[in-house]
Amino acid sequence: MNKLLKSELGFQGFVLTDWSAHQSGVGDALAGLDMSMPGDGGVTLGTPFSYFGTNLTVAVLNGTVPEWRVDDMAVRIMSAFYKVGRDHHRVPTNFDSWTYDEYGYEHAAVEEGHAKVNEFVNVRRNHATVIHDIAVASTVLLKNDGALPLTGEESTVAVLGEDATLNKWGANGCSDRGCNEGTLAMGWGSGTTNFPYLITPLEALQHEVAYKGNGDFKASTDNWNLENMARVASRASVSLVFVNADSGEGFINVDGNMGDRKNLTLWNNGDELIKTVSQNCNNTVVVMHTAGPVLVDEWSNSPNVTAVIWAGMPGQESGSAITDVLYGRSNPSGKTPFTWGKTREDYGPPLLTEPNNGIGAPQQDFGDGLIDYMYVDKKQITPVYEFGHGLSYSTFAYSDLHVRALPSGEYQPTTGMTDAAPTYGQHGNASDFLYPDGLERIPKFIYPWLNSTDLEESAAGSDYGMETSEYVPEGATSGQPQSLLPAGGAPGGNPGLYDELFSVSATIRNTGKVAGAEVPQLYVSLGGPDNAETVLREFDRINLLPGQAKRWETTLTRRDLSNWDVVSQNWVINQHPKTVHVGSSSRKLPLKATLPMNQ
Question: Considering 18, 260, 297, 454, which one is annotated as catalytic?
Answer without folding.
Answer: 18
